[in-house]
Amino acid sequence: MVDVVGEGLAPSLDRPPPSRCRREGASPSPTRRWAIAWLCAPLLLGTAALAESPASEWAHFRGDAGLTGVSQQALEGDLEPVWTFQAEDAIESTAAIVGERVFVASLDGILHALSLADGKRLWSYTAGDEIKSSPSVRDGVVYFGDEAGIFHAVDAETGKVKWTFQTEAGIISSANFVGDRVVFGSYDNFLYSLRAADGFLVWKLETDNYVHASPAVADGFTYFAGCDGLFRQVKLEDGTEVGSVQLQGYVAGSAAVRGTRAFVGSFENEVLAVDLEGGPSILWRYKYSDRDFPFYSSPAVTEREVIIGGRDKLVHAIDAKTGESRWTFSTKARIDSSPVIAGSRVFIASKDGDILALDLESGDAAWRFDTGSAITASPAIANGRLVISTLDGLVYAFAQKAGSPE
User: Fold this and answer.
1) Contact 384, 73 (CB under 8 A)
2) Are strands 141-145 and 150-155 parallel, antiparallel or unpaired?
3) Residue 191: helix, strand or coil by DSSP?
4) Which domains does the chain have, with CATH numbers?
5) 148-192 pLDDT, tens per residue?
6) C-alpha torsion angle, residues 376, 248, 48, 69 (rounded to 10)
7) DSSP letter for each residue of 135-152
8) Which contacts qualify for 260-266: CB closer than 8 Å, 24 or more apart?
9) Which residues pair with 248 in a beta bridge?
10) SS3 323
11) Structure confidence by residue, pLDDT tens digits, 44-79
12) Cβ–Cβ < 8 Å for 130, 146
């Protein structure tokens, strides 16, 4: 049922006091799910296909609207650090790269804008609580959520707040976009759609548990799975849920959508392929028999393969059509970082501090860099740079080493 939104749903144009609501204190959601929609909102949705980001941009967590984790720029040969930036606290989230700027957020509640050329800080914005949500950038605005449940829109040029929107619990989900909308999830068990220009609530959809993941966007729908174990297909126009399928396990990672299929890992040691034609249904389940650990990482997906990191300390390459294992690569620690495919390589990091480039075909290590600190953030690749952050608050920018074979 769709209800007209009443008063009291407009955002604050100044930052409100941080909420005391935390994930640990959020009450369970009732089993019903419902959407509310502002029916008079102008709809500029059009067809939200799997638009590829240009090679000069990594504008949000997984690089494109479908969250496929595929860069339009290859990084071959050996890489070397070209600059570092030291934040005052740990960094868990993934950087965004747009044009000549890098946007990265730390657990001290600060969003930093850095020069892509040399890592110089251009401005900083204080949110007031921990930031675990990866920043997303569109049309000169940076969007992200914080642990107080506040969703922020910040001017990318100046670092000044444009508007904020208050949810009822922490936000780890990263924003995605369609038309004039921004969509994201919260630990208050809701998926939100806001008007990007001013943060006015268009609709929100209630789930049965936390929404940790970022929503994928394709062909007028958003697709996501949550801690209630359901994979959902939702109309972006009005928030109507048109289909769902039970995955039989908690899901923290984001689903990647390519064509008529979605791919996602679960806490039941499974990676699943979901058929999107005629309503979501399970096509195959991949389960590595030798180890039984959750998948927290989000997959990177091409037409041929699904690449994902596991808490079993393995990188898994899976045939996208059949669900059969193609190869695995062993690391020294669990992998919460999500992989990025760039050309003939896949880049990923683990909690042993290593950043790795693996050959996409064979899984052999092609390049490795030891940061000396655990990593949960994922690589961002654009404009000739790989940018990634560590839990000791250090931001690295890598470029191809001079004279390195391509």
Assistant:
1) yes
2) antiparallel
3) strand
4) 17-37+58-400 (2.130.10.10)
5) 999 999 999 999 999 999 999 999 999 999 999 999 999 999 999
6) 30
7) PEEETTEEEEE-TTSEEE
8) 261/320, 262/216, 262/223, 262/231, 263/299, 263/301, 263/306, 263/320, 264/225, 264/231, 264/298, 264/299, 265/294, 265/295, 265/296, 265/297, 265/298, 265/299, 265/308, 265/310, 266/225, 266/229, 266/294, 266/295
9) none
10) coil
11) 444 334 445 667 799 999 999 999 999 999 999 999
12) yes
CA distances (Å), origin 28, targets 31, 187, 227? 9, 10, 11
Tokens of 389: 């952050």
- Please give the Cα distance from 116 to 114 (Å, whole number): 6
**What would the two tokens of residue 314 be?**
């393995």
For 398, the token pair is 């890598």
Q: Which two tokens stand for residue 93?
A: 């989230």
If you search the block for the tokens 């890098």, which residue do you land on?
A: 102
235 DSSP β-pair partners: 221
**Whether pLDDT at 348 is above 50:** yes
**Where do we find the tokens 């990634």?**
388
